[in-house]
Write a structure and sequence with these properties.
The chain is an alpha/beta fold. It has 14 helices and twelve strands. The longest helix is centred in the N-terminal third of the chain and has 19 residues. Bound molecules: flavin mononucleotide. Flavin mononucleotide binds next to strand 4 and helix 10.
Amino acid sequence: MTDRLRSRYLGLDLASPLVASPSPLTGSLDSLLRLEDAGVGAVVLPSLFEEEVEGEPLLLLERMEAGAGVVGEAAEYFPDVDLDHLGLDRHLVLVQEAASRLSVPVVASLNGTSPGGWVRYARELVDAGARALELNMYDVAADPARSSADVEGAYLTLVAEVCRSVDVPVAVKLSPYVTSLAHFAREVVGAGAAGLVLFNRFYQPDLDLVTLDVTARLELSRRGELRLPLRWIAILRPQLTSTSLALTSGVASGADVAKGLLAGADVVMSTSELLRSGPGRARGLLDELLAWMDEGEYADVDELRGSVAQHAASDPTAYERAQYQRVLASWHG
Ligand SMILES: Cc1cc2nc3c(=O)[nH]c(=O)nc-3n(C[C@H](O)[C@H](O)[C@H](O)COP(=O)(O)O)c2cc1C
């Protein structure tokens, strides 16, 4: 790997600014090794979901019941199963194996449901060898009794508690659905986060018109989705000068990686493109980035970073209203 791509994220030295974000591709040792071979600078493992850990013993019990009719009898076939730690153990083994077999930093991701759960599982992931943590704040705030201040306050308390409990850097994967995002981002950093990941991608349920069931079908991202995080990276970069910023959503080419770095991201993450084309596609993204850098005569990625953000600092509206007007004016039928 060429030195031209060297990057830093969450205080970690990375060989490249491309990070594999959480997905099934980062959930097996085999594909993690292939991602590393293809040049990613770091990997973020799939989130450990507290509800999954807590719910898995129930699933097992259901399976046991189905197989043997009675839980008590069935349990005899599984005498050594520790129901409380089944899902957790499997996840921790992945973190341990990835941390010991990969030379790139392994970041563990967590989505908790209870305040105690966030802290407990964060510690377990770090003890298993994670070099950093990513808190996956994926939540649909649908309770009309909770104001935005209540929801955000609860998140800030969690971030502060997790950051106090572990001795590795913590990044927070944010939702774009926050009224005053710049304010909330600053508060999250104030609570102890060393980095922000923009943005969490919310999967919208659909309706099946035949069965009238709610269906959950995951669709991979499309190119245009890059623009939302791109704008916010550019807005936040001059405001949060010592915070690591990662861009995620819609990164499908080396040019997209270049755009993220230009806007001020420390690293650019990819999932959908790697799922579509396989882990080896990471090498293609980096080769395309290098070709683009050659054309623009950029010596290294440090030279790229922040060029657009600096421009935004002198004209903060460039990413706000001015762009809106320009987009409206650009429609030609
Ligand atoms: C199949 C799949 C599984 C994912 N699992 C997780 C996860 O466990 N935790 C998480 O924070 N994000 C998860 N994501 C979101 C991705 O990490 C990423 O942020 C999102 O897909 C946007 O990036 P992309 O446009 O490159 O796909 C998942 C995405 C996909 C497609």
